Amino acid sequence: MAHPTPELVVALRRTAARLKDGVRYRWSHFAVCNCGNLAQTITELSPDAIYEAAMQRPGDWGEQAREYCPSSGLAMDAIVGSILDLGMEKEDVRHLERLTHPHVLRALPKERLPLKHTRREDTVLFMETWADLLEAKLDDVGRRRVVALAEAHDEDARGEGAAA
């Protein structure tokens, strides 16, 4: 399972919130699927930029992560690297895209199973549950960092809203 970091917890929760708020979602589109939306949250790249990067090398998100090379110079490797830098493992990328991580699935209410990896609501539930599991593994300093990161993001969002 992913290494628990406050940054990964917050990224998963922010992505789940964006999905709940109606951000563009289509599992069959590389830039607005499960991993594509997480990549948008982490990198702040547009869906077009993520899609363009993905088309430089064949493969879905799991294959892109498996082929990840930090020194390739490919934009997609920079995107995957940003995800891995937050604490995810290469295999976690595939699990997120397919909603198959066994630790997360075991933590879900039985009546919500099986998940459908192409359904927005299931992706939100999976991300929120994974964030909860990761946060539970953090020490007190890590949990306080989660709160601080979330508050900082909320302040940034309020500031952007005021500037618009």
Task: Describe the protein in words.
This protein has 164 residues and is mainly α. The protein has one domain. It is 65% helix and 0% strand. The chain is built from 9 helices and no strands. α1 packs across α2, α1 packs antiparallel against α8 and α2 packs across α5. The longest helix is centred in the C-terminal third of the chain and has 24 residues. It is globular. The relative contact order is 0.17.
Annotation keywords:
single chain, 9 helices
As a percent range, the share of helical residues equals 55-70%
State the major sheet.
none
Count of distinct strands:
0
**Pattern of helices and strands:** HHHHHHHHH
Which band does the percent of strand residues land in? Answer: under 5%
Radius of gyration: 15 Å
Secondary-structure-derived class: mainly alpha
Number of domains: 1
Query: Which stretches of 5+ consecutive residues score pLDDT under 50?
Result: none
Shape: globular
Kindly state the mean pLDDT as a whole number?
94
Termini Cα gap: 40 Å
